[in-house]
Design a protein that fits this description.
The protein has about 290 residues and is mainly alpha-helical. It is built from 10 helices and 2 strands. The chain has one domain. α2 packs parallel to α7 and α5 packs antiparallel against α10.
Length: about 290
């Protein structure tokens, strides 16, 4: 127990130091400033060449989404999630060691060139996230949390990071084992996170980005808008277009759906009009409703 408390304290202090360093020391490796720079860049594109020209420049819930961006990327972990996650991973590894498993790695890619390692991580992580995303739609109590993301009724880049913090718990929990099974020879995967952040911003942006034949590989605003439509088609009642960075998985597994231009389709879900419009209300909603579905 004392070891867990010590690890939690050390991890929390380490993460707090990291956040302070991110803010006070701008640089090419600062994720905090990458988030700001990419947000300003994509927002500038939205203002200059909007796809939905009648949408307000400062759309509904713009500032709420801006808060979600920094809360979900930094503040939530500072509350204690990062430190607690370290404790859980430590306990999990100790439990494996107790049954004779000291190395979880099943496939080692550490001998491959760094670009290949990063591409492997990008593909594996995106495929895991695609599957988790489908679970968020198919499992009733998880959907109640995921409704926060689908409460967007005017789409813009910052909507990417409007999600209930329970999604972080679900994603990271289900991501851990498959990613732990692959042994990487590098410690810094920042480039993967930056690329995924940029693609996610663009997918949710008020932009038209025709990709031609590459649309079956990369996700894009014209495809992702259909994921946010208010009413799914009878052929796909649990949802469509679950890809985060890549559209490839949806085309491979039959969940791709782009019947026409979705520029002006209605967004949200049934009953979105009654959904709380404050951060606190949206967080409480997930717990209150999810409890009824478990």
């Amino acid at each position: 127990m004392n070891d867990a408390v010590h690890l939690f304290t050390r991890s929390w202090l380490g993460y707090a130091h990291y956040v302070v360093g991110e803010v006070t020391h701008p640089g090419p490796r600062s994720y905090f400033y990458w988030l700001i720079a990419l947000s300003l860049l994509v927002y500038s594109f939205e203002l200059l060449t909007p796809w939905r020209k009648d949408q307000p420049k400062i759309r509904k819930d713009f500032w709420l989404d801006a808060f979600y961006m920094f809360f979900n990327m930094f503040l939530f972990s500072l509350v204690g999630y990062a430190a607690l996650a370290d404790v859980v991973v430590h306990v999990f590894r100790d439990a494996l060691a107790g049954v004779g498993i000291h190395d979880l790695v099943a496939v080692r890619v550490s001998g491959l060139p760094v670009p290949v390692q990063l591409l492997t991580l990008f593909l594996l992580r995106d495929f895991v996230q695609w599957n988790v995303h489908r679970l968020l739609h198919r499992v009733p109590w998880l959907w109640e949390y995921h409704k926060v993301h689908h409460s967007v009724i005017q789409m813009g880049f910052a909507a990417q990071l409007r999600f209930h913090w329970m999604e972080t718990v679900v994603y990271r929990t289900l991501e851990y084992i498959p990613l732990a099974l692959v042994g990487y020879g590098i410690d810094d995967f920042m480039v993967v996170h930056i690329v995924a952040l940029a693609i996610g911003h663009l997918n949710h942006a008020n932009l038209r980005l025709p990709l031609g034949p590459f649309k079956v590989i990369l996700n894009n605003p014209q495809m992702h808008i259909w994921h946010h439509m208010k009413r799914y088609p009878e052929t796909h009642p649990a949802g469509v277009n679950f890809g985060l960075s890549l559209s490839l998985w949806d085309y491979l597994f039959g969940t791709a759906y782009v019947p026409r231009s979705g520029r002006d389709i209605e967004l949200g879900f049934a009953g979105v009009e009654r959904f709380p419009d404050s951060f606190a209300g949206q967080v409480r909603y997930g717990f209150r409703r999810a409890g009824r579905n478990t």
